[in-house]
């Protein structure tokens, strides 16, 4: 397993991140986490809204807790009958974090993600509240999940100006079949030095088990799954390894939700896709970035002439 830096923090995280949402018992979780750790994996992702996941993770890790980068999330409601048990405001942050710490049996989490953008809470409120829990030692690093690029950029600009803890990571849905984040979010993350954690990198299994699920796939999905299988056969890899290698090649870290040790092992392997394989995969699932990215690309030669800088 290779490692990358988490944002601009110096924290080392494995190239394969493990989501624990589906691990609802110690019996199910222990062999999965063991297989992941044996391969060198060190990033475990959960959330306050994932039912028993936090409690199971706390019980399984025990004294090995510091061996892992433990990440959880807050935002989603913990009590539908309480209007303040959800959202990105300070009250829910504190209540959710304290609950997560008890469940995880730890005095701090390594990464706290804001689970989703809350349009009703000013970003200043969220960033100041996050900075407070970092300064209190209950959170080491913070990240943002599922939000527009302008929200994340504004939040980190405010943090920079005011000396608050800025987002070090961005969590978004990203796969060969779902590339919307390439329009705004990935360029923003690159410019700000954020690590991108890609959830659903196998497109809910469509890219790793297309032959068994062909009746449920659209024509575009079936074409992509077929291309993934063909490239996997040529490279001596599994379809999952190829799909995840494509995500890594785009600069993101795949976040996989494995239910069994076999699922973990199916995702392992340092596969590097040749340029011709990348081209075949992307041709099977066409994607257009659209405005303004395509327009800016077209205008650059005219706008800058002989002074155009090629990166």
Q: Please, could you describe this protein's structure?
A:
The chain has 311 residues and is of the alpha/beta class. It has one domain (3-307): TIM Barrel (Alpha-Beta Barrel), CATH 3.20.20.100. The protein is built from eleven helices and ten strands. The strands form two sheets. It has an eight-stranded parallel barrel, surrounded by five helices. Helix 1 (26-38) packs across helix 2 (53-61), helix 1 runs parallel beside helix 9 (261-267) and helix 2 (53-61) packs across helix 3 (90-104). The chain is globular and about 55 Å long.
How are the elements arranged and paired?
Layout: E1 3-5, E2 12-14, E3 17-19, H1 26-38, E4 43-45, H2 53-61, E5 69-74, H3 90-104, E6 109-114, H4 123-135, E7 139-145, H5 149-162, E8 167-173, H6 185-192, E9 195-199, H7 219-235, H8 239-249, E10 253-256, H9 261-267, H10 275-284, H11 293-304
Parallel strand pairs: 3-4, 3-10, 4-5, 5-6, 6-7, 7-8, 8-9, 9-10
Antiparallel strand pairs: 1-2
Helix pairs in contact: 1-2, 1-9, 2-3, 4-5, 5-6, 7-8, 7-10
Task: Please name the fourth-level CATH homologous superfamily.
Answer: NADP-dependent oxidoreductase domain
| Uncertain regions spanning at least 5 consecutive residues | none
- The gyration radius over C-alpha positions equals 20 Å
Mean pLDDT: 94
Large-scale geometry: globular
Q: Can you tell me the number of structural domains?
A: 1
Query: Remind me, CATH topology?
Result: TIM Barrel
Largest sheet properties:
8 strands, parallel, barrel
Please estimate the helix content: 40-55%
CATH architecture call: Alpha-Beta Barrel
Distance between the termini: 29 Å
Order of helices and strands: EEEHEHEHEHEHEHEHHEHHH
CATH class equals: Alpha Beta
Number of discrete helical segments: 11
Spatial ordering of strands, largest sheet: 3-4-5-6-7-8-9-10
Number of strands: 10
Strand fraction equals 15-25%
Structural class: alpha/beta
